[in-house]
């Protein structure tokens, strides 16, 4: 039976005999109203006297404060205890996920010099759909149709971008294109993906205990996932040596895998991927690494948060192969900025570059149903009477 203290930390009021009476929402002290506000996507506490929120893509300083540094640390410790973690002088950082899926990062002194830091990225109750991204201007219907066809044709896709650029949201949307009859294994540091496919297995990495034991890394889970007969492997984020295992999986029969990576341009993405492969500890020559990348990755979706706070897909780029030691890239779609409106919002849209992508030949050869808009943009050149399907 759970202790009264544990039930209290979990927000469960107890009767005199210790049994739970009712389940109440967790109390987060002064920041509770911010977390209950559906228009707020992230709450950032920089010490007891400074609380910022991200509201519609913009960072805003609030008038919310904590009574003291001790009150802030107490809340951080309660959150950590609520999810079975601890934070103290011996372990002054915690990165965890709340039961509703919200992601929490906290750092306390002595690592946090000017007061404890608490960052909560809220979990979307209703996951974004591709139509939501189109309505928001993140991409166009034609670009969305191209990405859908690529996912259904089992292309390996990297979603690249900076912190807070919307990579996970885009990865969620791309994952929604995976057919329901395929087995999907997701691997994440903290589970954020919201796949709706019925046949999925969700794996989450585990940090080390206070004594340093018990750590299960993303790389461990990638290796294990290969033994689970996946049709697709979706990795929340590639950030270390698991990049090598991911590339090898993509090159050995696990086409259609998806992941995200931190990089600012498609070309930077390739350099970043090389660096991550070297972090695996396997001594591979640069030429071999680039050969692995060029044969494994088919498409890079570049995401960015623009200066007005909006999140846009700015490039959809295919990898064509290698010329010597250089991996060749070709933009299929790119974002064209047309101006700024009276409210300071950047105007523009994701438009085709005018180059017929090599990917479209594979899409047609696999007889992947595509939308009429995409068929009009890139007609089938193999046979004039090839039946074009209609997107579901």
Report a brief summary of the structure.
The protein is of the alpha/beta class and 392 residues long.
Structure report:
The protein is α/β, with parallel strands linked by helices and 392 residues long. It has two domains: 4-121, Beta-Lactamase (2-Layer Sandwich); 130-377, P-loop containing nucleotide triphosphate hydrolases (Rossmann fold, 3-Layer(aba) Sandwich). The protein is built from twelve helices and 17 strands. It has helices spanning 4-9, 32-36, 69-82, 130-135, 141-152, 167-175, 218-225, 242-250, 266-278, 286-296, 359-365, 372-377, and strands at 12-14, 20-23, 40-46, 51-55, 58-61, 93-97, 103-107, 117-121, 157-161, 184-188, 200-204, 232-235, 258-262, 299-305, 311-323, 326-340, 346-352. The strands form three sheets. Strands 11-10-12-13-9-14-15-16-17 form a nine-stranded mixed beta sheet, sandwiched between helices. Strands 5-4-3-8-7-6 form a six-stranded antiparallel beta sheet. A hairpin with a 2-residue loop joins strand 15 (311-323) and strand 16 (326-340). Helix 7 packs parallel to helix 8 (242-250) and helix 9 crosses helix 10 (286-296). The longest helix is centred in the N-terminal third of the chain and has 14 residues, at 69-82. The protein is globular. The termini are far apart. Residues 1-24 and 386-392 have low confidence and may be disordered.
């Amino acid at each position: 039976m759970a202790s009264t203290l544990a039930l209290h930390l979990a927000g469960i009021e107890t009767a005199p005999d210790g049994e739970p009476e009712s389940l109440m929402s967790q109390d987060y002290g002064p920041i509770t109203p911010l977390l209950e506000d559906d228009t707020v996507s992230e709450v950032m506490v920089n010490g007891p006297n400074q609380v910022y929120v991200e509201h519609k893509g913009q960072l805003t300083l609030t008038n919310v404060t904590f009574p003291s540094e001790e009150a802030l640390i107490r809340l951080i410790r309660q959150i950590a205890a609520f999810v079975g973690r601890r934070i103290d002088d011996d372990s002054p950082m915690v990165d965890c996920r709340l039961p509703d899926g919200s992601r929490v990062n906290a750092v306390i002194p002595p690592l946090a010099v000017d007061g404890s830091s608490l960052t909560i990225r809220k979990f979307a109750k209703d996951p974004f759909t591709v139509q939501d991204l189109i309505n928001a201007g993140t991409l166009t219907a034609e670009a969305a149709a191209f990405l859908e066809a690529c996912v259904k044709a089992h292309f390996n896709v990297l979603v690249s971008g900076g912190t807070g650029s919307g990579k996970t949201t885009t990865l969620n949307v791309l994952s929604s294109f995976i057919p329901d009859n395929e087995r999907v294994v997701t691997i994440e540091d903290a589970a954020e993906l919201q796949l709706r496919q019925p046949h999925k297995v969700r794996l989450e990495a585990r940090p080390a205990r206070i004594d340093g034991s018990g750590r299960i890394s993303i790389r461990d889970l990638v290796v294990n996932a290969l033994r689970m007969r996946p049709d697709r492997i979706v990795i929340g984020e590639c950030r270390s040596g698991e990049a090598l295992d991911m590339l090898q999986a993509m090159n050995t029969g696990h086409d259609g895998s998806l992941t995200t990576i931190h990089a600012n341009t498609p070309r930077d993405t390739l350099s970043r991927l090389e660096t991550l492969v070297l972090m695996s500890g396997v001594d591979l020559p640069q030429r071999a690494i680039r050969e692995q990348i060029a044969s494994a990755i088919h498409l890079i979706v570049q995401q960015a948060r623009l200066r007005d706070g909006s999140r846009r897909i700015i490039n959809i780029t295919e990898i064509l192969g290698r010329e010597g030691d250089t991996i060749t890239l070709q933009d299929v779609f790119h974002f064209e900025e047309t101006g700024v409106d009276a409210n300071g919002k950047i105007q523009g849209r994701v438009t085709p570059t005018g180059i017929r992508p090599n990917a479209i030949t594979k899409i047609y050869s696999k007889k992947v149903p595509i939308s009429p808009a995409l068929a009009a943009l890139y007609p089938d050149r193999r046979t004039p009477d090839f039946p074009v399907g209609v997107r579901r």
